Amino acid sequence: MERALYGEGGFYRRGERPAEHFRTSVHASPRFARALAPLVLDVDAALGRPERLDVVDVGAGSGELLVNLLAALPGDVAARVAPVAVEVAPRPGAVPDGIAWRAELPPRVTGVVLANEWLDNIPLDVVELTPAGPRTVLVDAVTGAERLGPEPSEPDLDWLRRWWPLREPGDRAEIGRPRCAAWASVIERLDRGLALAVDYAHAADARPPYGTLTGYRDGATVPAVPDGSCDVTAHVALDACSVAGERAGATDGVLTTQREALRALGLSGARPSLDLAGTDPRGYLAALCSAGEDAELTDPSGLGGFGWLAQTVDVPLPAVLRPAVTV
Ligand SMILES: C[S@@+](CC[C@H](N)C(=O)[O-])C[C@H]1O[C@@H](n2cnc3c(N)ncnc32)[C@H](O)[C@@H]1O
Fold it and tell me: From CA 239, how far away is CA 22, in angstroms rounded?
C-alpha cells in the first residue's frame, strides 16, 4: 500500500488529482472550507491574535481547502495566516504563491492543523484470524491474489487486542497503528492550537468484521489491489487516534459526526422560504443551491456520517465543538 500510493510513480506521487477519483467534502462544496473559518477565528483569539498564525492542511490534495478557507477569513486575520499545504503530490500550478507546499509536516505549529481524509490514506496492514491466530494478508500486486503471511508484530498484536479484537476465524481487521502514529506526530508538533481530523471512521463497539479496505479509480470503487492504478483506503479507528493524540500531549479528543459539527457551525441544509422566490429570485436560487450543498455535507449516510476528531494543545476547545456527540 505504501509503495502503491507513495512510492516512485505511485498513485499519489505522480500527481493524480483526488477529485478525479472520489469526492471529498472539499470537492462537494466550498461551504465546507468556509464552515471551518469560525474554528480558526476561535483559535486565533485564544492565542491572543499572534503575528503569525499557522494553518496547516495535511494531505492537502490539490489545495482547495486552504484556498477557500483563506478567502473566508477576515482580511486582518488572513494577513497573519501562514498557510501550509502538506502533500506528497506535486504542487498544482493553480495554488496561489502565498501557500507553502511541502511534503512533510512542519517541525512546529502554532495555530490550526486540518486533516480532511488524510488518515484513511495512511497505509496499514490487514490481518485475518486463523485457528492459529492472526495472520497478515499479503496481496500479489500483479494478479490481486491473496494469501496469508506471517503473524503480526507484537506491537500490532497489542493494538489489535486493545482496539480491534478478532472473534471468529475468517474475521479481518485493519491495524490502525500507523494512523495513530501519524496523528500523534501531528500533535507532537503542535505547540499551541487545534488539530482536527475528518474522516470516515468506526468505533470500537462497531468495527466491521471483514474490514473496509476499498479501491477507487475514476469515481468508481474497484478491488483494493495495491498496484498503483487506484487509491487504496480504509476507514479510520478515530477513537484509537484520539488516545494516541492524548498520549502525545493534547487534551482529551472530542469525537463527533460531521453532521453535528457542521450544524453547530451553521450549515443546516434547510430550504429557503418560497416567499424569497417572489421577491429575490436570484437570491432564492443561490440559497437553494447552498441548501443542496449543505444537505450533501451533512447527509448522515454520506459525508455527514464522517467522524470529526478535535484535540487542542494549550488552548480551549472551540465552544462550537462542545459538547461532543460520541461517534
Ligand atoms: C483522500 S486525499 C484528500 C485530499 C484533500 N484533503 C481533500 O479532502 O480533498 C488524501 C491526500 O493525502 C495525501 N497524503 C497521504 N499521506 C500523506 C503524507 N504522509 N504526507 C503528505 N501527504 C499525504 C495524499 O497524497 C492525498 O492527496
Answer: 25
